[in-house]
Amino acid sequence: MINWQFYPKSQRITADLEQVLKVFYKHSETIKSPERMLSSNDVLRVIKEDLEILHYKVESGKGNMVRVPVLYGKNGALEKSFNADAFNESLGIVIEVEAGRAVDNNQFLKDLFQACMMDGVSYLVIAVRNFYRTKANNSKGYKEDKDFEDINLFFETLYASARLDLPLSGILIIGY
């Protein structure tokens, strides 16, 4: 099941971001968690072709990274860039697909920081598992972390506090 939340909640999701959502809906049976425990690269491979149809540059392995400019040096030469999973330069939308590290390693915060630094980025999409299975403490079983809900609680707090102004027009969180 695909879940999603757009921030700020006072604005409607854009038509361009709805197109990204349609890609995730189309592939929901293949990528859904916790039934499918795909890595972020595996999820990206599943949705890659549909994102490319929407004119996104999509990472396809370590040799083909999507670099988004951050700083320019002498004579306009690219001095610093960050890698993204997918980027549509004309729409200013960067997409990050996460799996296991999304909450446990605060990867979603790194994604937020980097998107805020990227030149020409107006919208950030973070796709995470709805549920992520981790080993339970002091037992041999597993527990299901609710990554989508945990990340939404963070962004809900961020926007409700109004203490930090982000240079982004919006953030879309997708739970797959």
Task: Give the helix/strand layout.
Blueprint: E1 3-7, H1 15-26, H2 28-31, H3 40-53, E2 57-58, E3 66-72, E4 78-84, E5 86-88, E6 93-97, H4 101-104, H5 107-117, E7 123-128, E8 132-135, E9 142-145, H6 147-161, E10 170-175
- Give the integer mean of the pLDDT values: 92
CATH topology: Restriction Endonuclease
Radius of gyration: 16 Å
Strand content: 25-35%
The main sheet comes to:
6 strands, mixed
The arrangement of helices and strands along the chain is EHHHEEEEEHHEEEHE
> What is the CATH class designation?
Alpha Beta
Put simply, the count of helices is: 6
Number of domains as seen in the coordinates: 1
> Which consecutive residue ranges, at least 5 long each, have pLDDT under 50?
none
Distance between the termini: 6 Å
CATH level-two architecture: 3-Layer(aba) Sandwich
Regarding quaternary structure, what we see is single chain
